[in-house]
Amino acid sequence: MVATGLRKTYGATPALESADFSIRPGEVVAVMGPSGSGKSTLLHCLAGIVQPDGGQVRYRHQEMSAMPDAERSALRRGEFGFVFQFGQLVPELTCLENVALPLRLNGVRRRPAQERAAQWLARLEVDTVAGKRPGEISGGQGQRVAVARALVTGPRLVFADEPTGALDSLNGERVMRLLAAAAKDSGAAVVLVTHEPRVAAYSDREVVVRDGRCRDLEQEHAA
Ligand SMILES: Nc1ncnc2c1ncn2[C@@H]1O[C@H](COP(=O)(O)OP(=O)(O)OP(=O)(O)O)[C@@H](O)[C@H]1O
Fold this sequence. Notes:
By secondary structure, the protein is α/β, with parallel strands linked by helices.
């Protein structure tokens, strides 16, 4: 994915002024920078959640802003995975059902979806909470369930916005170690927004956003 010259303004607030970004297949890139510098806005523009006011996001030779909404949604469901600061699991569903949900939405039948979900829960070392609801588990377990849910569909690109932000450093590192290892195993690239150097240490490369500006010197190698 390659993004160039991204701009986004909220009312009178410029969130992104000129952001360049690139990521190669299988690469883990940490997006760092001070609070309010535009990191989340950059991630949302890259993921097609927010439409930038200017600039381009190219993914596999397609310009995302030129795609019809339905096509962009299909791309998100099929190729992207998401992890947010507070897992955002569905509270009424068990952890197993939460992880199986993206597969069910993609048309996979219940049995195989739940089997694959169980494998991912084990991979993230949270198989013991499979039958519990999100309200009955710890924050660290919830984030590992959220990582399993993000990876269960085999995405090519995972967007993680402060995935360890609500955790103490020990749990944060465990989530990050498992996320980085699982992404490497499955060949997924990860865009990781964080302000914690210990979390960024799990990335292959760091880019810094300052006042809505972000330079990326590796663009020519991007996918
Ligand atoms: N939906 C929104 N409506 C209005 N202003 C917004 C919105 N989202 C972001 N902003 C503003 O845009 C700027 C960049 O915000 P953004 O959340 O991208 O920064 P950030 O680097 O991710 O911050 P943090 O590290 O604190 O999460 C900030 O000034 C913020 O207040």
